[in-house]
Structure prediction request, 540 residues.
Amino acid sequence: MKALLALLLLCASTASAQDGGTPDAGTVELDFPSILRGGSETAAGLDIATAGEVVHPSNPSALVVSLRGVGAVLDGTQASFALQLNPYLLTDGFERLYSEAVAARNASVVTRLLQDTAITLGIGQDTPYPDGVPEKGRFATVMAGLSVDVLGERSIYGAAYNACIQRVLTDPSLYEFPDKPLPGDFVNPADFEKALGDYRLAMEATRQAGIAKIRQGLPACTRETRQASTALFVSVGGRWVTPGLKSHDGDGVAIQRGFGAATVELLSSADSNLEAAIQVRVLQERQRPELSMDKWVDVGLSFGVASQRFQLKLEATQSLLKLGNTDQKRASVVATTRVTVGERFTVGLGVQGQGEDLADAVGQIRPSLVLDLAELPTLLQQLPAPRS
Amino acid sequence: MNRVRLGKPGTTTQGGSTMSGNDKLESTIQVPREDRKGAKLVLERPAGTLNTVAMRLVISGKMQGQDRRQLHADVFPGAVTVPLPDDFLPTAAQGWVRVVLTVADPVGMGAQFLQRATLVFEKGQKEALWDDFSLQKGAGADFITLTWTVVE
Prediction:
């Protein structure tokens, strides 16, 4: 794992040195997310320390990579590397226009679900077992999760956003470019040349004004869509302990956690950037390698405030039902803040606690550090050549 | 600048009206007035990485001594042929016709593609213009403008 992390950091520094380069056609950039919009996924079951970071299907990202808990200097963090992707953009959307994506969505339920799905794949160092830490490097953890916005109202390809973006692009002032001077209107060629020069400046000014208008319009559409829609996310996933770099003979793969969850957004106020969600999960988890899986149902509540450069998230879960022969009650609390530093990093400081009930969880709070490298590194993935 | 042209690393243009690298954004062509009937603009499907950018097409033009006219305005479906009315290009000695495409990027991933459009006359004369378009990640929006000046 350490070698992998070192390699990634190396990629990051190489990519930053090539700032401003454009990717080749037929490739897609992998980028580290800056602060994600939205994201009430109440831990989504993957990794409690990365609660808000599990990608939200309404954050369309073809491919996003994040390196989480890299610091791992504070107790309670498991360094992990996660890849988050939108299957539609990656398989088909990269060669589609917006209008085609909307038409495809309306023609096929499968396409709609693919557009509104986020897949998260992660790999972490060592094991997530709460008790008993095996020797460093013997094991690694693989995580996979999938989250679908079932209602689909919030999607950028949905009816509300579509109506909004068409309104933005229909604004006649966007198309008020200046008249091109005609040579026949000028007796003196020097006057014509001067008029052409003025024309080019005016063209550029109109272009910049139009870009600014659309750049204002798109986030307004996102806000409008969030406020006008309800989101219901269904998520499933799990994590598996696998042999690590220093594995012993006979070490195998074992599931450590599995979950299914439904999340409803109770509140999504765009203007104040407030967000609240409630989640019901069914979980199974192994406490120690030799034990069988505990199974239970819990309920979680998530509250978030986000701005362009700052995010605060509070999340709590409490078990409701114990299934099978599970006898332990469980509760967790997570509070995370995240700040964008410069243009390239987001740094998160958080606390998390786990216990039998909420009071117990609060009493066992431990700090965690999350460092995201925003928009780095640029790794390129080869895609099939676009159809001509 | 949000926009970086390909072809010549490090060179950027001053916007939609200049030529550089792999672009040909404007052109002046000679077509006698009697040969300007039955003209049409053929827009090809953009070729490259689109990442579901939203595009709208507006075509406008102006003939010498006349007011500017809007000839077409609609969602750009990816490829379209727009006939130009016969009471436009043949009505004066000089004039211009312009294609404006807005490119908006709701995903925020950027896009990179070649957009070609050709002005085609009934008698076979044609003039292609193109923009080797690149919208950087996070740039949000940009324009493609292609302008044909027609003289006698």
Remarks:
- Residues 1-20 of chain B have pLDDT under 50 and may be disordered.
